[in-house]
Amino acid sequence: MTSTLDPLLEATRLLVEAWGDARSGGDLSRAQLVAVNDVLGLLNRSSGAVHAEVAAAIAYESRRELGPESLAKQQGYRNTAQLIATTAGTSAGDAARLVKVGEATAPRSNLIGERLPAKFPAVGCALAAGRIGAATADLLVTFLDRMIVKIGRAAVAQAEELLVGKAPGLSLDEVRRMITRLEAHLDPDGVAPREDELRARASLSMFERDGMLYLNAILDPERAAAVKTAIEGYVSAQFAARRDRDPALADEDRRTVGQVQADALTHFAEHALTCLKNTALNGATVIVRVNATDLARGTGYGLIDGLTQPISIHTVRRIAGSGIVQDWLCGRDGEILHWGRRKRLFTDPQKLALRERDGGCAFCGLPPGMTKAHHLKWWARDHGTTDIDNGVLLCETCHHLIHDNDWTIRIDGTGIRAKVWFLPPPGTASPPRLGGRARTEHIA
Questions:
Q1: What distance in Å separates the CA atoms of residue 58 and residue 72, rounded to the nearest whole number?
Q2: Can you list the residues of the chain whose pLDDT is less than 50?
Q3: Which of 3, 15, 92, 116 could lock onto 81 through a cystine, CB 3.0 to 4.6 A?
Q4: SS3 state at 113
């Protein structure tokens, strides 16, 4: 009589046999390493099958209607997932997926107690035999469950047999790819709605940590096509150039694929910023601020607008070599900074000065490119002047927040070393808030 444990016990026996007399993995021959790795895969798949079956049984003994008699609660856990996750050292999500696989591949009973076959018997047989693992079974079960309402149970049964026949020996990524292509074949009308869903989920986030800018992009196929093709094309060209280079110089380029991909993204961004035909960026410019004397002497450091991490003077010089160096001075008369009533809009030199003082949005710190220069005393209503001492950089959100909630702004001092203060509405207990670069930087 066969037992659920038989495949697991057989895998254990094969592991002992393949291991031989070695004391550790480092003592194994190459042939043994391959054999042991194969058996460990079988052992992992077999143990996953047993764990899924046990997880489903624990879930049944911990069902909600049992109340305090629930097995999970008697063991001190809120639910089945927490019990399994804690004891197995995995996540609650992984535990829940294990339960789902166990329930979908175990025999069932109807309302009068009659035994019924498993919901997905072919997946259950492949799992029990160790041909697929629990993670692969979860992908198959999730897909087949989703397709029942779309194509019917008979077609799903055929798809189950097809997938179970192809899945052994495939990685999880390959199984996902197979499922994606099969879904499009079985339900072509569902491709467009799925595409709309993916397009709505597309996003890109950027944040700084430890002196590095982290990018997290989630792209739908249409967006991804251009990005992936361009980066892979750049990488291929770089490695082709490395291959064709003089062998004596070939070792000079030791960049990894990941580093070359980062260089590709930088290359495309630099091209977009410097392309004269590109109007989509609305004049966006990388601005590096550095003391003129430091730049000449090769001392000190520089700051890139919108980024926190300072850069060395060597990096400043390298960037300056491919860009424009603009010197500007603030005299006592403030010639380039104060236009009074002669101009309504702030000029580019004035915006540069405000960038130097405010660093970006003076209230929340968003990068300068996401801000606009605003008059403190309004041009039309208050007859305000277009001077930097009457200007402040604010993002659109903070601009509305300040006006809608009766905050006021006070400038202490003059010029780019002035300090911007945000004063809360009268009657509130909040103290004045220092804004601009002075809030986080030491301004000499």
A1: 8
A2: 328-335
A3: 92
A4: coil
| C-beta of residue 62 within 8 angstroms of C-beta of residue 79 | yes
Cα distance between residue 301 and residue 316, in whole Å? 8
CA distance 429 to 308: 31
Segment 299-304 long-range contacts (CB within 8 Å, at least 24 positions apart): none
Residue 5 sits at φ, ψ, to 5 deg, of: -80, -10
Report yes or no: 353 and 330 within 8 Å, Cβ to Cβ: yes
- What residues contact 304, with CB distance under 8 A and at least 6 apart? 286, 287, 288, 289, 311
Can you give the pLDDT at residue 443?
A: 61
CA distances from 224 to 105, 170, 173, 271, 358 (A): 36, 25, 18, 19, 36
Catalogue the E-assigned strands of 129-251: 203-209, 212-218
Provide the strand spans (E) within 286-377: 288-289, 301-304, 311-312, 372-375
| H-run or E-run covering 193 | helix 191-201
Residue type, 146: R
Rounded to the nearest 5 degrees, what angle is found at the Cα of 202, between the Cα atoms of 198 and 206? 160
Identify the pLDDT of residue 387. Answer: 85
CA separation for the pair 176, 298 (Å, rounded): 54
* CB-based contact 72:58 (threshold 8 Å): yes
Q: Do 162 and 179 meet the contact criterion of CB atoms below 8 Å apart?
A: no
End-to-end C-alpha distance for the chain, whole angstroms: 85
Give CA 317 to chain center in angstroms: 32
Please report, as a single letter, which amino acid is at residue 111. Answer: L
Tokens of 21: 């007399």
Look-up of token digits 């961004």: 269
At residue 362, what is the residue type? A
Query: Whose structure tokens read 């166990």?
Result: 102
Alpha helices per DSSP H over 62-133: 71-74, 80-88, 92-105, 121-128
- pLDDT tens per residue across span 71-120: 999 999 989 999 999 999 999 999 999 999 999 998 877 777 778 889 99
